[in-house]
Fold each of these.
Amino acid sequence: MAMRLLFVDDQEENLKSLALGFRRSDYEILTALGGSAAIEILKENNVDVVVTDLKMPEVDGMQVLSHCASLTPPVAVIMITAFGTIESAVEALKAGAFDYITKPVNLTELRVQVEKACEHRRLQKENIYLHSEINKRYGFEGMIGQTGDMQQIFEKARLIAKSKATVLIEGESGTGKDLLARAIHYNSPRSRHPFMPIHCAALPETLLESELFGHEKGAFTGAIARKEGFFELAHNGTIFLDEVGEIPASMQVKLLRVLETKEFMRVGGVKPIQVDIRVICATNKNLAEEVEEGRFREDLFYRLNVITFHIPPLRNRRADIPLLVKTFVDEFARENGKTITSITKRAMAQLTSYHWPGNIRELRNCIESMVVFAQGEELDADALPEHLHPGAGREMGDFFSAPIGQTLDVVEKKYIQETLIGAEGNRTKAAETLGISRRTLQRKIKELGIESG
């Protein structure tokens, strides 16, 4: 689409000359005889660049500039001024004009200025588009939930997004804790600065300190150059510590110090580094219980537990499943170039009755599989994964029961054993189903004496 220019002058001959000078360009040209006419045109048309005379009766160029600046996004303005009014042109620049040019107008110079203004406008539009795409994906609008609990979470998140307070998000694996963290960041004053996600359980204890705080050259074997850590890279933005409950005790002390002082030292460093960051943490554990069991520092827990969210598992918000299904069907149909117009009542009934141990992540993967293998425009229950079918063998979706009177350790041991069987011995899958990390599962297997199998 051609960029649209608006020439503004109170002299008709000047307007004709300007329009004539751009007749062979690729721009769409509009003209306005005076400032009042220009403002009316701007109200009715999307204009990219305005070229206006500064001195005009009644409504002058500064008033046109003021109107352009009030638009969203602001329209680029090039001011034409006589040599004797340079000071006014400088004032126009301070008020937001893109540039100015003096009379008599040099058309070659003006064309260069217009092209620069158009490029500025293109970048401006691209930036707006990218931010809208980010908001679609990571804004609150991109989060799905019509149940009362989810609506309360969204409303609370909107209220605290603009604050600097530390946030703790609790919930089972796959419930969307990372999406909520991103939504809070992208709706905060820090949205134009980095969002740094760190999966604490995925980093070995030996590397965790170096990854979080960085290291100096020669700090340890293999440190051949200085490296900035995640906290340093997140300066002015947000750091997201996923599975914060997996951080070992030695690192919990250092994390507490960063939260209290907003400064740290690289591994091997001697100079404190100050950072301005917001910390958002997530966990699939009950940190209060972890404190009671002595596995998590009480002082760190209270430092993290400033604003808390608990995202309910999908089985507790079944009313959201049809909306989630439709969203995922549309997404994967678009990605795979397919036309899916509907899903049968039988398929939807089975989707809503299943208890989804892997929560939204598992549902999303299920729908992707159904869409990829779809032969027609309707998804039927036959396309569901085998373990979602009624009467299927012992799978991840079956119920678990234990007689009253057994100790908690015995029940927990049996439940983990059954989950491992359902996961065909896959510990990563079993840990995801149980809502714990693979490291925690391995510890429980050892503590409870569960056969490796």
Note: Residues 84 and 109 are 19 Å apart (CA to CA).
Amino acid sequence: MPRKKTKPILSKKPVKRRREKIQRPRGMKDLLPADFVYVDFIKSIADSTLRTYSFRRMDTPIAESVDLFVRAIGEDTDIVEKEMFVLKGRSREEKLALRPEFTAGVCRAYIENGMASMPQPLKLFSWGPIFRGERPQSGRYRQFNQINFEIIGGSKPALDAQTIQIAWRILERLGLKNLVVQINSIGCEECRPVYRQMLIDYYKPNVNKLCADCKRRIKKNPLRLLDCKEEKCQRVASNAPQMFDNLCEDCHDHFKLVLELLDELDIPYMLNSSLVRGLDYYTKTVFEIRREEDINHSGSQLSLCGGGRYDGLIELLGGSPTPAVGVAIGVERIILEMKEKKIVPPEFPKPRVFLAQLGELAKREGFKIFERLYLADIDVVESFGRDSLKSQLKQAEKQKVQLTLILGQKEAVDGNILIRDMGTGIQEVTSQEKMIGDIKERLKAKEDERNDKIKMAKKKTK
């Protein structure tokens, strides 16, 4: 009986499964090159302004002991209770947290590094990422950047006013307008306990009108009742006793002088008896800078910056009694505001020269020529990753350069280089020895031509 033909068994090719894309963590943001146009501009303005006022930069670790923030910020604050990113340390005893703010770490470093021996008051600034597990929304991220500056070792009201003035000037130089300072005094250890009890007495009969968080705050942190963003809590807070009326003589005189100095500086401000800030270490002056358009709006309001005085913090962390005042500026919030107001940072100077090469020898020589151009302060761009001259010239056109240097095998051997005018397309050979002088001369001629055209255009418009 003839055998039946059987089909050969084909091995199945493994099906490649498309791997799931990994996304950035919720509430965190990628800063792309387009964002850094704003970031670098903000950083340069802040840096130059702060150095003008004799501030010096310092940095602290991104991760610090959990105990530092619990002691400094307050165990019953939202930041410590709900928002800190706590890390598992190398041992059970080690507990670290990503910093939720700068000031606690700066004060810890001030004590630990013996900075009290330096001339006081000490002016310090920092820049970097901050981490808080907040509910993400526009202007609120779980990782964000702050510009932070402190004046440590001075108790005079003039330093409070100067801190506000510097923050105001930075925002002003960035092109932001229609801003207002909201300001309050939350007293000191002498007058605040009395006011705290007044708040408790006022809120107890109204406890059923409050949100769940505020019901908890009555016992733990009654000052935070004043700045709750829930509408029903704001209605109760509108008739609460005001700290202004219960300041001791020292706090009253201090606050009065701060306001007088702001008047002298022509910085607009509004008294806000509900402003307490979310950190327990504040004393006396607290403030925020906000947009005027947000002032009369209920609900959550985002400040562009905020700060205040913290005269007891360094002693609380184990140092000697040392008065201080500081402020934090939110970088991402400023970027949002600049974009909304269509404020475009000035562009960095674009390269005016492109270096193209063709062949292995030319590429090797091209590295040396690029270094020479860099050392001669000629802004130049290259594309060493491309071999095709045609594709390199396309890149030069996209970059909108004025001159393209073309280095082929023959030019590399002869010690010459081609200079191509991208406007006219004319190419000329020059020696590599004279190259720098020739390039600078051509660029200057183009700059002079551009300036002449601008002058002629101005004359026509008159």
Note: The radius of gyration is 31 Å.
